[in-house]
Design brief:
150 residues, mainly alpha, 0% strand, elongated
Amino acid sequence: MAVNYRERIIALWTVFLLGILFHTQLGLMPLFHGLSVVEAQKATNINDISVIMWLMLSFFVLPMLAIIATAFTDSKRYRMIHFGLTIFYSIMNLLHVILDLFVQPVFWYQIALMILLFLVGLLLNITAFQWMQMHNRTNKLQGNLESSHF
């Protein structure tokens, strides 16, 4: 049975997106029970946090675009860019886990979720690397087959 890396990558990105959405929701759940939440910075209006909003939008949109591109693109160049994107997200997730360990109080349910997302990211890294390498192996095999016919 042939491995379909594209399907695996799309599934992993989808799990990752659902996980970061749940991470955000977990952070806001205290509000629904009359409790306060940790504030990174005080804001008086939406313009005070517009940069953060754009960064969050980018952080969510890039995986969505990766899902679409993976479904429709099979080029070597895209595979390399995609692998780099997965590495970037793994680094960002690891930094997020580490930094949240210094926020008081530490919410261990959030840390557990972020560690799970980091592990999903590592699996995504491995799968994206294998997908990127598959293109090289396919070309080598095809070259060997063509040279054997002469």
